[in-house]
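Troubleshooting log. The previous structure file for this entry was overwritten by mistake, so regenerating from the original sequence record. Sequence copied from the archived sheet and checked twice against the printout by T.R.
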Amino acid sequence: MSQNEQVLSYPIPSEAALEPPAEWAELRRQCPVARITLPSGDEAKLLTRYEDVKQVLADPRFTRLLNAPDAARLSDNESGGVFNTEMAQIIPDSGEGHQRWRRLVGKYFTAKRMAALRPVMAEIAERLIDDMVKRGGPGDLKASLGFPLPVYVICDLLGVPATDRDRFAHWSDALLNLTRYSQAETDAAQAEFVQYMSDHVAAKREQPGDDLLSALIKESAAEGQGLTDVELLVTGMALLVAGHETTANMIGKMVSMLLVDRTRWERLLADPSLVRSAVEESLRFDANSGFGLPRYLKEETEVDGTVLPRGTTVICSMAAANRDESVFDGADDMDLSRSPNPHLAFGSGAHSCLGQSLARTELQVVLEVLLRRLPSLRLAVPVEELRRVDGLVVGGLREVPVHW
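Regenerated output below.
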């Protein structure tokens, strides 16, 4: 097909919950910079090759702010969800301001600090599995374990009561909205979330605890150039949304990928030392990671021989890039011992995911505990009956029915 004339609707639908759309391979081969129409009706460019996606994510000329007048709107909502709110503009997008924010917040998410949280995570996982087993099978692994575990962990980190987790779920869904919520619903959720988090920051100023926000407040006071109240508020909101939604979905997808071909699960039972590489391969192999990362081009540049004018909005599909045969041998095979595995699931460059050590640790712990506690785990429905989450910028499965 001649892609130059054809404009694809985006996101590209996929019939199967765990399989990539057939178009990805064709786009990588024939049209790595493709024209697409977003849910808003606006046009953008889609990148599907590994090197291109990596280049754009690391290039400071591509900004993540989509509030320029000529930037494509992602959805038909004015808010454009999480990429286009006033909130998104408070944490600096680039330069020294962005580096300062990452330095202040990032040191609380190092691999070393996350390793120290492993016993707490394992304890939470054990407790949630106990509850699921008590209720009897079949159970929904996403609702019983995938969703609550990251919420408990991030609430713990931020010093927020885990009893509020259903409210967080609604607020973050609304902020991750693509086509599911109306403008009024998105605005109302955001206003409630802002109010909640500003009250929480004020309470932590009055009475600091042993948590991340209290530590950031203390540091800001000591240094005199830490985070302002508004930056603290937005940081808290951003970490709550990012810290639970993506990992909650990934737990369900990872377990489904490992159970859909039972030999994968059995290989891990036989050799639990493969858990780390299996988590990395699940992240690479995930064909349902969501919308991808949008970037707005502040000046003309060239990608893969195509000149992109200033004002172009580009969507980087990390999931399509992670299936690029030129980088990953047997890219369409799930190889649990794959090494090295330089996947782009957490992005690349200065904006790579701040919480990747947290996500990796949670996924490893969940897998270790499940293999030990429920070795006979299996999907309770045929893979054809697994249903994708629709209408949000993150990808996931609506439920993951399992027997054990």
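The chain has one domain: 8-403. Archived copy saved in two places this time.
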